[in-house]
Amino acid sequence: MHTSVLELAQRLIGCDTTNPPGGEGHCLPLVGEILERAGFTVRVDAYGPNRASLCARLAPGDDRPALCLAGHIDTVPPGGAPWSVNPFGGEVRDGRLYGRGACDMKGGLAAAVCAAAAVAPELPRGRDLVVHVYGGEETGCEGSAHLVRDAALLGRPGAAVVAEPSNNRPLVGHKGALWLKGRATGRTAHGSMPEHGDNALCKALDAAQRLRTLELGPAHAELGAPTLALTTLHAGMNVNSIPDAAEFTVDLRTVPGRDNAALLRAAQALAGPDVPLEVLMDLAPVWTAPDHPWVRRVRELLSGPLGPLPEVETVQFFTDAASLRAVLPDLPILVLGPGDPAQAHQTDESCSVAQLEQAVDLYTIIARDWYGREETSC
Ligand SMILES: [Zn+2]
């Protein structure tokens, strides 16, 4: 039975996958059943209690390059401010779908699943089309990072579209992220006799100060300059004791040209041996050259429905594309999906229904072209 993109997006919004805790497992059958009916082989990739992602492949044995449509099913919490609609109601008002995830990104996910199900019967027999539905994106892409490590689930993507909100424009990259926690320890003592203690807060402050001088490497022409921000600091229990423990966190946003591993080594050297740095999250930057033949081709195809497109567009936030990039350094990846990125994580989050429907058309165009083109060149 045919499911419309709006219906599916509404059902996904109605299935609470607020992360934390996530609980994506109970929601994955909503997409798994549609894809199975369309002929896909569906596998669930569990990575924790009720934490899971899904991989659907049309022809798992095919080793020719496939198109991969990807997105995440978890959302951030509704937030503290009251909503004017039920965040899990999927209400449509004035041509817009409301609810947590309408824009980021149950809308885009619904569009990708509907497009995959629609084009599946048209594809040349034996050709694989891959759909990835990740859990755990909002807390650092742990679902996609887990899934891509399994070769059978990763498949053989030759190009990928990550359906995050972009107002349906094809974006070629975003910064990476490296989140670090520094930890200093010492020995407590009475505040009147600091010489009897070993002040962990002072060690943490000194290390953090040195980290602020970290050489981040050159700016990227399109993604901009890499950045470092000191974001939290916790130490001490009371005003008259020397703190024996201190922690701080650093949020680094990285660009191609200096990889995260090199930055981590340099950061640890600056922090010094007394302040070990723990990696909280490590996501590669994502960049696909705008003159890559597939990117040029997609831009050309989409300039019909979308009108003339600028040469290069990028986005600020990170996406699951980072996990794909980590295992497939040469894979061309576009971030392209319905919804205004500014709506992501907002109270009263919404997405234009027209953009949802357009996204199905755009993914369909991209898929038909991928397999049509492959057939004629093979
Ligand atoms: Zn997202």
Secondary structure layout:
Blueprint lengths: L4 H10 L13 H10 L3 E8 L2 E7 L8 E7 L19 E2 L2 E3 L7 H14 L9 E6 L7 H6 L3 H4 L2 E6 L10 E2 L1 E10 L14 H12 L15 E9 L9 E10 L5 H12 L5 E7 L2 E2 L5 H14 L14 H7 L5 E3 L14 E3 H25 L1
Features:
globular, disordered C terminus, binds zinc ion, 378 residues, single chain, 2 domains, six-stranded mixed beta sheet, four-stranded antiparallel beta sheet, alpha+beta, 15 strands, Aminopeptidase
Tell me what you see in this structure.
- The protein has 378 residues and is an alpha+beta fold.
- It has 2 domains: 5-174 and 285-377, Zn peptidases (Aminopeptidase, 3-Layer(aba) Sandwich); 176-283, 2-Layer Sandwich (Alpha-Beta Plaits), CATH 3.30.70.360.
- It contains 10 helices and 15 strands.
- It has helices at 5-14, 28-37, 106-119, 142-147, 151-154, 200-211, 260-271, 293-306, 321-327, 353-377, and strands at 41-48, 51-57, 66-72, 92-93, 96-98, 129-134, 157-162, 173-174, 176-185, 227-235, 245-254, 277-283, 286-287, 333-335, 350-352.
- Strands 1-2-6-3-7-14 form a 6-stranded mixed β-sheet. Strands 10-11-9-12 form a 4-stranded antiparallel β-sheet. Strands 4-5-15 form a 3-stranded antiparallel β-sheet.
- A hairpin with a 2-residue loop joins strand 4 (92-93) and strand 5 (96-98).
- Helix 1 packs across helix 3 (106-119) and helix 3 crosses helix 10 (353-377).
- The longest helix has 25 residues, at 353-377.
- The protein is globular, with a radius of gyration of 23 Å.
- Zinc ion binds at residues 72, 104-105, 137, 164.
